[in-house]
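Lab notebook, bench 4. Still working through the backlog of constructs that have no structural model yet. Next entry is a single chain of 476 residues. Request: give me the structure tokens for it.
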Amino acid sequence: MLKSPFESSVQVVPLGILSLEPVLEQISPGEDCFLLESGLDVAGTGLWDIWGFDPISSFEIAANENPRELEDRPLKKFDHWFRQWEVEQAPLQLSGETVPFTGGAVGWLSYELLDDFYGMNTREISSTANIAWLDELPRLNFSLHDEIYVRFASTGEAWFLHRNREGWKDRMEFRFSSAVVSQPNSETPSMVASSFSESEYLESVREIQKRIGQGDVYEVNLARGFLVEGCPEPKDLHARWRQAQPVPYGALLQSSTHAVVSASPEQFLRRRNKHICTRPIKGTVPRTGDLLKDERAGAQLLANEKERAELAMIIDLERNDLGRICKPGSVEVTAVADVEAYSTVLHTVATIEGVLQGNPGPGEILEATFPGGSITGAPKRAAMQVIRELEPWPRSVYTGSIGWLSPNGDLEFNIAIRSAIVAAGQALIPFGGAITWDSDPESESREIGHKGRAILGTLGLDTGVDPEKNLESLPG
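Model written out:
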């Protein structure tokens, strides 16, 4: 086996107080890099900003690669790649806190990653829009970094972490010697296509309700994709979104062929040693900023039987998923429904935790849990089949996951809602929500517009929804 680049102990170079604006300015178009930004700390999920350039290796599962052709497990190759650089690490403390990630793999997984594993039928894109590039993007894409920058979000203190690879000082100094002067995009962003017409979306909602009535499913998350042309550079898109919606799991991942931008509030998986956790969101109301009004809205959210029933279904689903990889009896619900405040909304969040059985690799963990139940519905496999039948376009990174993987197996991934995949001069930006028996189709359509208002509004695009109307929605 090759020597892991992480066997050397991590070296720490203090950088003082640093803002993220200069970091974004340093990113060149098409440069391989990442930024995982925690613009909001909720329940300890947003303590650190992490970014890096100059990856030393990469791993992807191509669009035409069929995981079912592997001998026994669809993500066996991913685990094999991880085992090549797996190594135990001593914890690193900075600013009195343990740094969760000191180098390793950073990347994303598309929603369709395990379609073959789940036996989904092959999707044919049913659209006149020119989006064939969606089917050519990887299903999974990770880059390996032995040098990264970390920043304690609350104070701005930053450090460069490296392992004495030749030239580290030159690479570090280059990043702080000059900024890239970007040429502004002269195009005005425009909405060029939607995966559903209004009538098609309403009909799909009614079809889901028919399936629920037949007992096929209990709940299905239906997504509507929007195709945008004239989109800003990915770093500029991220800059706009970070201002509009600070979140714990903001992300910018860029390569020479595509980029991913995300403003997600939701944690999918968090592993530390043997402990694993998931925090699904189900339930949303607007936040006014008035303390008393927000308290009343939170109380109403907890009292809403429809919202609580949906959250309970997802809790059961996630308990079952974690049970596949955890010690018997170790999976427990440690928070049934916490109301958490974000910049513009209040969310209901559950916490399910467990203790891992043995030492499963990241691929094995993902096979048991991916995609997250909060963005599929229940039962998961049946809901995914309905999604496949009804949604005309692939979701790609939307409702997949973005995150990091350490050499010791620790990991943290978001649910990639409020996310865009940018390629070929276009951006796919979907939004979705849970459809139940009690759903009103027209209200669900308005919900999509509400969700897109802040995100698409940063591009000057109007969703046509009155911002004064209540947001009766679920995150997506």
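Notes after review: The first helix runs from residue 21 to 25. Confidence is low (pLDDT under 50) at residues 465-475. Flag for follow-up if needed.
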